[in-house]
Amino acid sequence: MTTTLPLVLDAPRRTAPPRHLADLDPAERRAAVSDLGRPAYRAKQLSVHYFGRLTTDPAGMTDLPAADRGPLAEALLPDLLTPVRSVACDDGSTRKWLWRTFDGSLVESVLMRYPDRATVCISSQAGCGMACPFCATGQGGLKRNLSTGEIVEQVMVAAREMATTGERLSNVVFMGMGEPLANYKRVLAAFHRITDAAPDGLGLSQRSVTISTVGLVPAIRRLTAEGINATLAVSLHAPDDELRDTLVPVNSRWKVAEVLGAAWEYAERTGRRVSIEYAMIKNVNDQPWRADLLGRLLAGRLAHVNLIPLNPTPGSDWDASPKSVEREFVNRLRAAGVPTTVRDTRGREIDGACGQLAAAEV
Which positions are annotated as binding [4Fe-4S] cluster (predicted)? Predict the structure, then answer.
């Protein structure tokens, strides 16, 4: 006698993050709710809860029919980021989260509280493909782009954290893992979710959002044409092509002059200063003549230099410039008329500072 065993099929493997309310613009949200057999106006109610009341718990959505709460939340407010670890330093004012996404990818975000503001540094990709050798994220390579919802949820987590003490999140910087302009469409959509007025979005000022790039010139020009008023930050790290080709490999495609030219176009349209990010690396890019060259490139432009003491990363032989060298670099830039500050190295103890995000589980 032959026994026929039932055919067992593996469940289909998800290849993309689950759809989330934050992935959708208001019209798409209404259509999604209608497709679920509910009145389209329920989409606005869901948006009020997510963006306005900072909640995804269907039990508290008492303005929705009890029979609709669970199905709508399950369909449009799925969990996107599973917490792996949360660590704090600076007397609790800096907190870093490590998240696991639907496919096991690991990403990090960092909340920094200051006396006058609260800033969250968010990731736009799992890993990074720019391969800058002094950056822990770049050393790990690119896994994938994050979805709009995965990007926005990092901001919402920080907003909820601030709300527990009756405070508000004020600033967002796209300076975590990844090159934001290499994930252009989703980053731009996330920007609008962060800045659109409630209940369509979180309602932060566009000017309180910073979008960083290593210098993807076509994307900078595309961003200029969008008509938005975010702060543009350019990770320059060297004023000369010979060194920048090594420190920022994408420079082999778009040279310093072209990158800065695109940045000045953005500054001219917005009237806003471009932030020039410059990691100070001992005996690599911190020579006085490089400070003078950088000063000549930026003099008279809408620009501000943000010097970053190099943060230690595993396996790197490079170190931060001595404070005396750093001070001379600052003085030479200021003598050229270029506004210059040195970035506060928040989160260094928890590998949460600039260039340290590597999404390590241990």
Answer: 128, 132, 135
Residues 6+ positions from 48 with CB-CB distance below 8 Å = 198, 199
Q: State the binding site.
A: 128, 132, 135, 178-179, 212, 235-237, 311
What's the alpha-carbon Rg for the chain, to the nearest Å?
A: 22
Q: Identify the domain containing residue 37 by its residue range.
A: 24-52
The half-sphere exposure of 125 on its side-chain side, counting CA atoms within 13 A, is 22
Q: Report yes or no on 204 lying in a domain.
A: yes
Q: Give the total number of structural domains in the chain.
A: 2
Q: Which amino acid is at 319?
A: D
Placement of tokens 């953005």 in the chain: 266
C-alpha distance from residue 159 to each of 35, 222, 226 (Å): 30, 29, 26
Numbered residues of the known binding site for S-adenosyl-L-methionine: 178-179, 212, 235-237, 311
Catalytic residue among 89, 108, 167, 349: 108
Can you name the residues that pair with 111 across neighbouring β-strands? 95, 120
23-75 residue pLDDT tens? 999 999 999 999 999 999 999 999 999 999 999 999 999 999 999 999 999 99
Annotation marks residue 153 as catalytic: no
Q: Which residues are annotated as a binding site for [4Fe-4S] cluster?
A: 128, 132, 135
CATH number of the domain at 326, please. 3.20.20.70
Angle between helices 148-163 and 184-195 (to 10 degrees): 30
Q: Which two tokens stand for residue 15?
A: 């290849």
133 and 238 fall within a common domain: yes
* Active site annotation includes 89: no
